[in-house]
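Hello again, I could really use a second opinion on something today. My current little project is about how a certain protein chain folds up. You're getting the sequence in one-letter code plus the fold written as tokens. Here's the protein in full, and shout if anything looks odd to you:
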Amino acid sequence: MRRVLGKVNRFFAFLLAPALGFLVAFAQAAPADKLPAQALMVPVASTAEKAEALQQKLDETKEMLRDADDAIQEIQSHVNKEKKEYEEQHQKINQLLSASKSQTKLSADVLDTILSNMLGDPVGQTFGPHSTVKVYSLEEAGYRGYMAKVRLKDPSALKMVLANDTIRSKGETTSHAGKRTGAVLAINAGGFMKSANGMLSPIGITVVDGKIRTYSSDPRISFVGFNKNGRLVGGKITSREQIARMGILQGASFLPTLLQNGKRMPIPKDWANARQPRTLIGHFDNGDLLLIVIDGRRKGWSNGVTLEEAQRKLQEFHVVDAYNLDGGGSSAFYYKGRILNKPSDGKERPVISNIVILP
């Protein structure tokens, strides 16, 4: 039995001898002790540095996100503030527009009251989709005539009409111009020259539908025009560019200017204190127009009016700006299909241009 166990032990000893030898040799050599400590530490240090750098990037990103969030909040606050300011401004504008409309109506009512107190009730009224026209009879010591207060709801309701739609012709009466354009109201407009063969052509500047049909820089002549808003504008025009800048759509020329900003302008010496038939145009501070024709040269009916008298009367009517149009035998007042005044020639005179008001 002992011999058997001894054999077994020797067998396992022989089997395990290589492994035991390897372990003894490895223990004696201690290879790990011979490796540099720095070499063992490099991976650990490198990883720590990378982790630290990554953490720094994360911290920087968080800071940027916080800054971005603050910026977004500030922008949102600014947007909300601007939106609130816009809404408040829009509300104020609407309030001003409402007040303006109320004031305009009040102004119109006041003007109607003033005119009615001075002239009596209108002898004719037209309330059309594009304009409102109220006609009054004028009767003062020494002269008679007619006056229309016009409110344009649409600026295109006012037209400057050339006779036969050309700058050179035999002329056209005011009533004919009114009828062919379908106008409710018409008065004669610009001055004109007459050639030996009876052809008429405008003096000064004439503008029709925004196009300059005639042009003159004669400083003695006043221009009477209407801009794209239907407002009366005029005076001295020194260039074609000025006409464009003023947005003038319709206009004609004569002289002189009577009122500017409610103040009387000088009357030329050759025109001073002369009593004649007159055609006048002006506007109130609310933009309403005043068209006046005064008869003259008809004994027992009307002797006419001087420009100085006309200025005073226009001021009594609270007119702001006013101009003298062609007068004498040319003066004609057309309303609803007929001539109301009594032209000095006993009948209408053909003229080169007329102002018409569409209903």
